[in-house]
Amino acid sequence: MSGTLEGDVAIVTGGSRGIGRATAVAFLEAGARVMIVSRKQEVLERVAAEIGCEWFAADVGDRAAAEACIDATCSRLGRIDILVNNAAASPHYGPLMELDQRSAERIAQVDQWAPVMWAQLAWHAAMREHGGRIVNIASIGSTLVQPGLAYYNSAKAALIHLTRQLAAELGPDVRVNCVSPGLVRTDLARPLWEARGDEIAAALPLRRLGQPEDIAAAILFLVSDAASWITGQTLVVDGGGSLGSALGQVSDRPQPPG
């Protein structure tokens, strides 16, 4: 069994920062060639130059942009073996009774529909012919009744179920799994861990918050040959928070402090 990805080509959405960037670096170090995707071209150019990968600017919820990225990946890198659906959107914080349609549609578009759409496109373009591995990124919030993030968490819960469905439909040649992070020190989650980081870490069995590299290591395992008999599963990576500690009320997405 090996963790090497030598010869593989990977697409990582939301790949310019945080968990996505750490995943791209882990894949590159394992021998893969990587295409990172996000909306901001200038950031992508800088990150790609720093870590040594390809880049493509796209809104992951835009089908035309996704198709163009898939085509560019096949053109530049020759194939697609791995897809990591890491990009996420959470434009609304508050009770469901205050959720507006525009925010709800954006959450559903990026967090629930986009992973299915990208899986479809990768499968039709490459994975149907030679197989592949897909990893979706959910959240421990998917298991919680949590003030402020109900619709986002519901979309992540749906993504976990969709992971199981995709695994059943695309096997045996394509494995599909999910990683569910706890609170990770990313820019997106900065308002929470800056305000309450020490308190939250002290409540965790492992006594520290997550780093992007912790999640990247789990993703690397799931796409490697070491996980060749694993599909349709969700790997929780949260420092033990879901065991019932104080972090049981904290997700990987930020909440306003105080």
Provide the fold topology:
Blueprint: E1 9-13, H1 18-29, E2 33-38, H2 41-51, E3 54-57, H3 63-77, E4 82-85, H4 101-130, E5 132-137, H5 150-170, E6 174-181, H6 190-203, H7 212-223, E7 234-237
Parallel strand pairs: 1-2, 1-4, 2-3, 4-5, 5-6, 6-7
Helix pairs in contact: 1-7, 3-4, 4-5
Question: What can you tell me about this protein's structure?
Answer:
- There is one protein chain.
- With 258 residues, the protein is of the alpha/beta class.
- It has one domain: NAD(P)-binding Rossmann-like Domain (Rossmann fold), CATH 3.40.50.720.
- The protein is built from seven helices and seven strands; from the N terminus they run E-H-E-H-E-H-E-H-E-H-E-H-H-E.
- It has helices at 18-29, 41-51, 63-77, 101-130, 150-170, 190-203, 212-223, and strands at 9-13, 33-38, 54-57, 82-85, 132-137, 174-181, 234-237.
- It has a seven-stranded parallel β-sheet with strand order 3-2-1-4-5-6-7, with helices on both faces.
- Helix 3 runs parallel beside helix 4 and helix 4 packs parallel to helix 5 (150-170).
- It is globular.
- The protein starts with 8 loop residues before the first strand and ends in a 21-residue tail after the last strand.
Short description:
The chain is α/β, with parallel strands linked by helices. It is built from 7 helices and 7 strands, in the order E-H-E-H-E-H-E-H-E-H-E-H-H-E.
**Strand elements, count:** 7
Question: How many domains make up the 3D coordinates?
Answer: 1
**Content-based structural category:** alpha/beta
- Report the β-strand fraction as a percent range: 5-15%
Radius of gyration: 17 Å
Helical stretch tally: 7
- Binned, the helix content reads 40-55%
The shape is globular
The CATH first-level class comes to Alpha Beta
The biggest beta sheet reads: 7 strands, parallel
Unreliable runs? 245-258
**Which series of helices and strands comes N to C?**
EHEHEHEHEHEHHE
CATH architect. name? 3-Layer(aba) Sandwich
Q: What average pLDDT do the residues reach?
A: 92
Q: In whole angstroms, how far apart are the ends?
A: 47 Å
